[in-house]
Predict the structure of DUF2344 domain-containing protein.
Amino acid sequence: MLRIRVLFSKRGPFCFIRHVELPQIFSRAAARAGLSIELTEGFSPHPKISLGPALPVGVVACAEPAEIWFDDWRDSYLERFDDALPDGLSAFAAAFVEGKSLNKLCDAGEYIVHFPSDDTRESVLSLLREGKQPWEENLLDWEIIGRSIRMVMSSPSQKGPGNIVKKLVEMKIIQGWADIRLARLSVGTWNSKSKKVVPLVESASGTLSVREG
């Protein structure tokens, strides 16, 4: 069996599909592509698939990791697998991996946060500039990108994007999710020197498959 780590994105209406539903969707896509996935042991075996840190429903994901134990894998299989996925879900990179599980490796998440209200955006920027940000315990880096704010947060498994919204609600800067637009750009390991989140496929050992286009 081959443990293959895949990077995938989910956009548009598909970002409203729950995290827990993804393994079944990946399994069905693999079957349509003619690929066989190893089954777990026990009384109720199911395809052996592991996902990275969960995302709340409605959050766009640009580069999420998943691990799938295939019976066989070749570089050309990535395109077959991607073509079998439903619209809005795309697999664009893959590599053979060994070692630690995904959730032990995912120590940082990179987010782009957009505030439709200029007043709200300025309130958040003031907090960040003054060092009074409500995410002091897990904010690793931030910068202004156009009319949005890029934030890198530690511990995405315990303190994901919902923590950003929760803290702003507590400070009465926003009322809830309707006052914010948020996407996760990537999740992986934090490189403090380059101040970048390294996607887990790029940092993995083994042959890397990348779909063009």
